[in-house]
Write a structure and sequence with these properties.
InterPro entries: Acyl_CoA_acyltransferase, GNAT_dom. It holds the Pfam family Acetyltransf_1. One of its GO terms (molecular function) is acyltransferase activity, transferring groups other than amino-acyl groups. The protein is of the alpha+beta class. It has one domain (about 5-165): Gcn5-related N-acetyltransferase (GNAT) (Aminopeptidase), CATH 3.40.630.30. The chain is about 30% helix and about 30% strand. Strand 6 and strand 7 form a beta hairpin. Helix 1 packs across helix 3 (about 40-50). The relative contact order is 0.17.
């Protein structure tokens, strides 16, 4: 598994916004599959300023995934969503050219550890847009299973299919 450092972003700076925009631009396959278009300035803003109704702002977290001092991916985590004890990976993407090194798997493990160290570490969820077919195998391999729940959200190119995994220890 690739060695990473998961860095929580507490505020947006011009330098961080530029790094996030670069990584998003290096994930065109993800954005085309999930949104039907490439990422734009709105996605960068949303990455830093996501609000989740009913969740304290400190429990909605954005991260840079770094390897050897270079940002190679992005992730977000919502602690306490959708119920107490449960957390949700809101976003996880690794630059196309950095894939295959285990960075996404390592980031998932780090996000799970963060959840387990909080009061919201009994289970983890992720929503996968059905048009992002390549993602299902990755998440299933990490132990996530479909819950049977589907959501239709207008910002996505298809329905969101929810997967969940119990977290132990």
């Amino acid at each position: 598994m690739g060695s990473i450092e998961l860095v929580q972003f507490r505020e947006a700076t011009p330098e961080r916004e530029a790094e996030v925009a670069r990584v998003m631009a290096e994930c065109p396959d993800y954005y085309r599959a999930v949104q039907g278009r490439l990422a734009g300035p709105g996605e960068v803003k949303d990455f830093f300023h996501a609000e989740v109704p009913g969740i304290p702002p400190e429990d909605v977290r954005s991260y840079g995934i770094y390897s050897q001092g270079r940002m190679v991916g992005l992730a977000s985590l919502v602690l306490g969503w959708k119920r107490p004890g449960q957390s949700m990976i809101g976003f996880l993407a690794v630059s196309e050219r950095e894939r295959g090194h285990g960075f996404a798997r390592a980031a998932c493990c780090a996000l799970e550890a963060t959840a387990r160290s909080s009061p919201h570490g009994t289970s983890m969820r992720i929503g996968i847009v059905e048009t992002n077919a390549n993602a299902f195998g990755f998440w299933r391999h990490l132990g996530f299973v479909e819950t049977g729940e589907r959501k239709t959200l207008e910002e996505f190119a298809g329905d969101v299919i929810l997967l969940e995994k119990p977290l132990h220890g």
